[in-house]
Amino acid sequence: MYSRAYLLLERDFQELKENNFKGITAFPIREDLMEWGADIEGLQNTFWHGLFFQLTINFTSQYNCVPPVVKFLTIPFHPNVDQNTGRACIDFLDDPNKWNTSYTLSSILLTLQVMLSNPELENPVNLEAAQMLIEDESLYKQVVLRLFNQPSQLRDNGPEFPKDPDKIIRSIKEISFNDYYKTWSTIATSKATEHYRSSLLEDPNFIVEYYKWKKAELKHPKEWNLK
């Protein structure tokens, strides 16, 4: 006898397969469908395009009455992603009172994809990323791309991607950023408490690299221009 959560996630899986959203890969890790692995690529026409981020989504038997727990395994340098835990800071994921039973696996993944190139800067969880983006967008892009090549990765509990391609949803359907933004930006907000806020700029290694990149940018502006 399958649980209600299992049947809903089976429905969500079918919805994801039928839509084939571009840049989104997802698959169940456990037979009861309570744990998922996913791979998200940044939207086209943004500097996030071509960058792939692995994440996990953990549901409970109370789905879809409560939100799942979502964490990036490949942690981006992003205002709305906790750099230590990989936790994605989105309103409806953080606060069960703002969760809506109409949300599905597809809507969660689409929101995360939009969040990458459309950060919420009013309540950032990564204060350094938000400050850098506000003050020097060009430098922020460079830091994101450089850190992506040496990412912060949560490996211990990471899912093993299945070798069977039939078990993975490879997305091929193209959707414009405007369509994404119109649909999902109203629910992609960031809420954070002081407990989750950390100081990357207090890390001396990062400070050294930061000023090396800045110096290189001033010395060779054409080579560093990623706009």
Automatic annotation (TrEMBL):
Superkingdom of the organism of origin: Eukaryota
Keywords recorded for this protein, A-Z: ATP-binding, Nucleotide-binding, Transferase, Ubl conjugation, Ubl conjugation pathway
UBC core domain: residues covered: 4-153
PROSITE patterns: UBC_2
GO terms for MF: ATP binding; transferase activity
One Pfam match: UQ_con
Signal sequence range: none
CDD domains from the UniProt entry: UBCc_UBE2U (cd23806)
Primary role: Catalyzes the covalent attachment of ubiquitin to other proteins.
Protein name (database record): Ubiquitin-conjugating enzyme E2 U
Taxonomy of the source species: Eukaryota, Metazoa, Chordata, Craniata, Vertebrata
